[in-house]
Amino acid sequence: MDKLINRLEIKPLVSIACITFNHEPYIRQCIDGFLLQKTNFPYEIIIHDDASTDKTDLIVKGYADQYPNLIFPICQSENQYSKGINFLCLNVFPKCQGKYIAFCEGDDYWIDPLKLQKQVDFLEYHSEYGLVYTDVNWDYQGMDKLDKSVFKNEIEKHKIDFNWLLINTGYFAPCTWLCKKEYLPSADIKSYVDLTFPWMLDILANSKVYYLPETTSNYRVLQDSASHSKDPNKMLSYRNGIFQIQLDYAKKYSVDLNILNKIKEIYYDSIFICAIVSDNMKSIDECLDYYLINKPIRIQTKIALLMLKYRLGKSVIKLFFNFKHR
Questions:
Q1: Contact call for residues 321 and 308 (beta carbons, < 8 A)
Q2: Residue 158: what pLDDT?
Q3: Residue 322 has pLDDT above 60, yes or no
Q4: What is the mean pLDDT of residues 38-61?
Q5: Cα–Cα distance measured from residue 78 to residue 92, given in angstroms and rounded to the nearest whole number
Q6: What domains are defined for the chain?
């Protein structure tokens, strides 16, 4: 924008909500992506730093000093996440004045200067939609992958709706989202391992979601995070948290029993290997109980599962994987 917006005089049409913690190597690129935006409307940038132990907060404050009528920092002195405080809903969203809300974490960044303009143009003329999102580049950090690979959501192909997302837990990068303010999660939402999954479920249950087939953002994939980790215990804990969201939202919106059964089938298939590798006997037993009761399996497989259940040797796992899909 050519002219800075006085927050007291002009209400922004869009509020950009950014949360960050120890993102010193990335936060400048994130904020620069916000400043890159070319719009015919005013917007504001709310940045919440959760008591970073590096220099993230100093960088954020430096940008706020440079753009005092555009960037509004919230720098915590104590880490809110470790206290179980839903700071996004309690501290960030209430500060947002815009009709529309964009969301981006401090290690992700926007690459399209017309991202907000395109999304606002769509929502302004399609009142039946509550959110619009786009494709995203996956920007891998320190991994044996290409530096950047495009992740295609292809919403038209999958015909995304509430039931599809509840079953498949598909990922739609939040750094690409723009949603109407009335569809923000409420402050009393349950504390989950992932806020964006139930947030999208609530929107799909009450509105329509539009996929814009353009790449506007880069989602940075770090080596170790809540949703990406080499530690099987962390991944098991995260998957259990996602499963809890699925169960809660299946109940909240009274889904069909067939959908609930499909959710359980996918869940137990997805955690079985993690449970074995991490030697989590509680999760192993839950999987075995599920398979023995619910899966139409051959007698050889059932014997192998019973042997494993009663600790008669983990080598029987090979038998399980040889027969479970027959």
A1: no
A2: 57
A3: no
A4: 97
A5: 15
A6: 14-221 (3.90.550.10), 232-323 (no CATH)
